[in-house]
Amino acid sequence: MTAIRVLGMVFTLVASIVVWPSSAVGQSVHSTIQRVQQRTVKVFGAGGIKRLHSYSTGFVVSSAGHVATVWSHVLDTEELTVVLADGRKIRAKVLGAEPQLDLAVLELNAEALELPAWDLEADSSDAGPGTRVLGFSNMFRVATGDEMVSVLHGVVAAKAPLATRSGAFETSYEGTAYIVDAVTNNPGAGGGVLTTRGGRLLGMIGKELRNAASNTWVNYAVPISELKQPIQQIIAGKYRARQRGADDKDAVPRFRPLEFGIVLVPDVLFRTPAFIDRVQPGSVAATAGLQPDDLVLFVNGDLVQSCRVLKRRLGRLDAGGTLKLTVRRGDKLVPVELPVPDKPLTPAPGQPKTKPSAGSK
Amino acid sequence: MRPSRMRERRTGWVPVWLAVCLVAGPAVAQDRPVADLETREEQAFKEASAVVAPAVVRIQTVGGLDRVGRVLTGTAATTGVVVSPDGYVISSAFNFVSRPASVLVTLSDGRRFPAKIVANDRAKMVTLLKIEAAGLAVPKMAPRDGFRVGQWAIAMGRTYESPLPNLSVGIISALNRIWGRALQTDAKISPANYGGPLVDIQGRVIGVLVPLSQRQAGRTAGVEWYDSGIGFAIPMADILATLPRLKSGKDLLPGLMGITLKAGDVYASAAVIDRVRFNSPAEKSGLQPGDVIASVDGQVIKRLVQVRHALGNKYAGETITVLVKRGEKSVEQKIELTGKLEPYTPTFLGLLPVRKKQGEVSKGVTVRGVLPESPASKAMILPGDRVVQLDDKAVVDTAGLFDVISRRRVGAEVKVHVDRGGAKRTLTAKLAVVPSQVPAVLESDVIVAPDPKPADLPKTGRFNQDLEGHDHSFWAYVPETYNPAHGYGLVVWIHPGSDTMEADIHDLWKPICDERGLILVGPRAKNIAGWSLNEAGFIEALVQEMQQKYRIDSRRVVLHSYSDGCRFSFHLAFKYRSLFRGVAASSEPLRLAPPENRPDLRLQFFLSCGDKDNLHRLVQRTRTRLAAMKFPVVLTTVPGEGHSYPPIPVLDAIARWIDMLDRI
Q1: Confidence band for B21, pLDDT divided at 50, 70 and 90
Q2: Do A12 and B161 touch (CB under 8 A)?
């Protein structure tokens, strides 16, 4: 254990010598805020009708005038304006975007700007829960003209994936995010930045997001480590948007509980627990020892909270693998494994007979 | 690194700290040059949470209701704290509000166990769970007498898919909140950390995070304050003190005496007993209306509010000593508190008072009608009689008569002194329970249009409007014959999700409003898909707006709703007890626990449902549940109907029901 500790020391020592840029050393929070505000801009575009705000935030990523911001309806206009920290209004256009990361890069329509800009390589950092952070954004459009964007303080609550497989969040971004204990994600705050108190860039504040599972609003930022490469590539004109996996929501289920010999209790409630009603004799479920009244809790390690979710999980199984279930039997958790049939179901009646790619990806 | 700091600490935490160090290492290292107080505090937050982290567990639930009232209960993971090495885990009762079929606990090391719900503390809203595990890490507890407002407080949860618990940092912002049950913190408290620990900077548990509200009871009360900077924690010391009782498997209930105190400024008035509940501990010990409470358990009581503070942490089964002043005498009583009082049963005489017009002065209560088969009718009280005295109490007005009757018990005989055309008569009536039927015929109190029409008459007919100061709109129907000299009933139509039904409701209710002297108002949910709990304030403001613009009879303000709109109207009725006198709910059961029936704030229910509706049995159960709390409730079953808005004969019955809400 001592060895590990020493190793850790060596590593951190090296890191602080090599990575730390001289510009950020010894800054107070006050100078951090000034420095970050200089690099944060207000973005004005489409919206303004029926609770769609027409503004958001951006941060300057090149002194020549590139601004990274959140990909949203605000950008959906020819009349895109960026207001710099000093109040200058400059027309902008969308240079490129990565909708899966909720990221867009704007190009300012002006010559020889020489703006103070973030150096994405040297200025960015990473942080764990408990790290004190600052959030900068044009939330609620409070700052007007040359007024500096608003600052909030808090700590990193967690660094965790936003999109769980249970689909708790409706977001295009599915990677790990900083979840913050300050209310950073307000209207217009998207595209703002999250930094440490020392002024290191941690992430870009995302859109407003509701957690469908706990029915609460979530405040989060997309880590800069995820955005760095796409931003640089978009600026260099070399970026190709990622291919989005086909949406499997409407896909024809590939397997049903019945394929395994499992008959679930009737699904009468919105959240009927996935109790097994009957096990068909001679089926793989019977061979694996599943019993009536077993409650299916986990499918391949993921919690299933209802019959509906269980059916959805089985619907997405890959053919020919192993299905790992954990059931609750009395007070015990019992793991079982079932072979998945090699052939998925043919489309159910009522579905189009030939649906290219569905069910075969 | 930092050898001096490490030596200060106990040995057990070192490996844990190391783990954090490895995960969060780079960030800490890079911020090292900013070696100031803030950075060291930040390090202390991380260390404190690392010390407690092994005892913070993840809780997942399977099955259960998807919503309780209008609160969507999460299927998301929640948090618990280990309180004994042999597998007892404490959590917030909120986490089990959906009555899950199965509860799973995942320890910090990834081991997973099915859990049993052992018992609930219904005063502090915490739940004790048990898993079959041993040798669990139990966190240190922060001593209760060391709490200081302003000290650091770190809220922890284990709800994200991350090996580390989630944190929010704040301070203790107040002590002794919610009648001494909780302390307050400005750390962000939400379903992400309900049930988790609030930890001090030394890594000791201050308390367990729960949603609470000082205005409401119940497991979802206070959830609307999530992430607002107002959060509550039950001191761990208090939880550990009740742990042996919880372990025995019996729920702990808040201790009740069975008295209500005379209304007044709670911070200035003395604690004068107003009512003593029938068969309650207070009645059995001989407390009487008019007694002034002077001390509870030796604590001197000078003001009303102190009684609540003194009782806030008392449970059913505990005995308290109460000293009261009765006239010149001082009486001391030992009272064993109960968890459940016999519900108050409203009494029924069965007469309809004449509704006084604006400016009309007359002593006593003149009888407009007598309900068939009622105690009043059996006592031969006649329309036109003027009630001037009841037993030994002079009757001045309707409110006074209602108050006297509400203090009598069902079955009691009362002497009703009436003035019949100048002749005094004394009649004897035996008070009954409120009937669960609406009479087939009820003559309406006809209102004629004002003549001449005043110039400043408010809007009449059907109109649309935005409510000032709210991001909401509403529609309303006011009879064209509106006469400000008369009091009108107010029907607040709470539409179901995704359909405001405006045209239908207007067409069906317009003739009823015209006939019965009612004003109909239809608020619109911000999101047409359905009502959210935090829109309650809008409804309250809307009713107050109508009361300001029109002359509304406060005894006939009702909520009317159909299908899932009823969930919101039940919530409103229970939240604003002083505003609403009735709920007419169609085709939807009550999914909340009904509150206490209060003698001073009358609340009545009219339920209707088709017998082919899937929800019919649940609606019947709703009737039973409300009746068990002694709320007057009418249930009308519509033969042959499925899930549909009630037909005209039922609406006529609702209209008659509204028209007799001011009956005595």
Answers
A1: very low
A2: no
Query: DSSP string of A213-239?
Result: TTTEEE-EEEEHHHHHHHHHHHHHT--
Q: Closest to A128 (Cβ–Cβ): which among B24, B30, B187?
A: B24
Domain that holds residue A288: 257-339
Residues of B in contact with A159 (CB under 8 A): 162, 164
With 90 as the cut, is the pLDDT of residue A192 above it? Answer: yes
B25 and A11: CB-CB below 8 Å? yes
| Average pLDDT across chain B, whole number | 88
pLDDT in tens, B638-651: 999 999 999 999 99
**Separation of alpha carbons A181 and A129, rounded Å:** 10
- Interior angle at CA A44, CA A38 and CA A48, nearest 5: 145
- The C-alpha of A223 sits at a distance from chain B's nearest C-alpha, in angstroms, of 13
Contacts of B389 (CB under 8 A, 6+ apart): B395, B415, B416, B417
- On whether both B268 and B364 belong to a single domain, the answer is no
Cα separation of B343 and B431, whole Å?
17
Q: Per the domain annotation, does A34 fall within a domain?
A: no
Is the pLDDT at A26 greater than 80? The verdict is no
Q: What integer is the mean pLDDT of B355-376?
A: 89
Residue B595 lies in a domain: yes
Residue A170 clears pLDDT 80, i.e. is over it: no
Residue B32: pLDDT above 50?
no
Looking at the structure of chain A, the number of domains it has is 2
What's the rounded mean pLDDT across residues A173-177?
Answer: 84
B37 touches chain A (CB under 8 A): no
- Angstrom distances, CA of residue A116 to CA of A143, A237, B436: 19, 22, 76
Does one domain contain both B280 and B229?
A: no
Residues spanned by the domain of B532: 461-659
Task: Say if the Cβ atoms of B62 and A297 lie within 8 Å.
Answer: yes
Q: How many contacts, defined by CB atoms under 8 Å, are there between A and B?
A: 197
Q: Is B298 on the interface with A (CB under 8 A)?
A: no
Best A218, A271, A333 residue to mutate vs chain B (most B CBs within 10 Å): A271
Residue B581 near chain A (CB below 8 Å): no
Distance between CA atoms of A263 and A290, rounded to whole angstroms?
11
pLDDT tens across B219-231, in order?
Answer: 667 777 788 889 9
B300 inside 8 A of chain A by CB: no
Tell me: pLDDT of B14 over 80.
Answer: no
B301 and B367, same domain (yes or no):
no
pLDDT, average across residues B81-105 = 88
Instruction: List CB contacts of A262: < 8 A, sequence separation 6 or more.
Output: A276, A279, A280, A283, A285, A290
| Structural domain contains residue A195 | yes
Cα(A129)–Cα(A106) distance, integer angstroms? 32
pLDDT of residue A83: 95
pLDDT in tens, B515-529: 999 999 999 998 888
Q: What is the CATH number of the domain that holds A307?
A: 2.30.42.10
Regarding whether A195 and A263 lie in a shared domain, the answer is no
Give yes or no for B45 touching A (CB within 8 A). Answer: yes
- Minimal C-alpha gap between A339 and chain B (Å): 24
CA pair distance A346, A344, nearest whole angstrom: 7
Tokens for A66, please give them.
Answer: 């590139």
Q: Is residue A188 part of a domain?
A: yes
Whether B66 contacts chain A with CB within 8 A: yes
CB spacing of B31 vs A197 below 8 angstroms: yes
Nearest CA in chain B to A9: B1
Residue type, B247: K
Does the distance separating the beta carbons of B64 and A168 come in below 8 Å?
Answer: no
Mean pLDDT of B161-189: 91
| Residue B451 belongs to some domain of the structure | no
Average pLDDT, chain A: 81
Apex B111 CA angle, B109 and B115, nearest 5: 125
Please indicate, yes or no, if residue A121 is contained in any of the structural domains.
no
The enclosing domain of A165 has a CATH number of 2.40.10.10
Check residues A258 and B510 and name the one with the higher pLDDT.
B510
Asked if the Cβ–Cβ distance from A127 to B113 is below 8 Å, we say no
Nearest residue of chain B to residue A180 (CA atoms):
B168
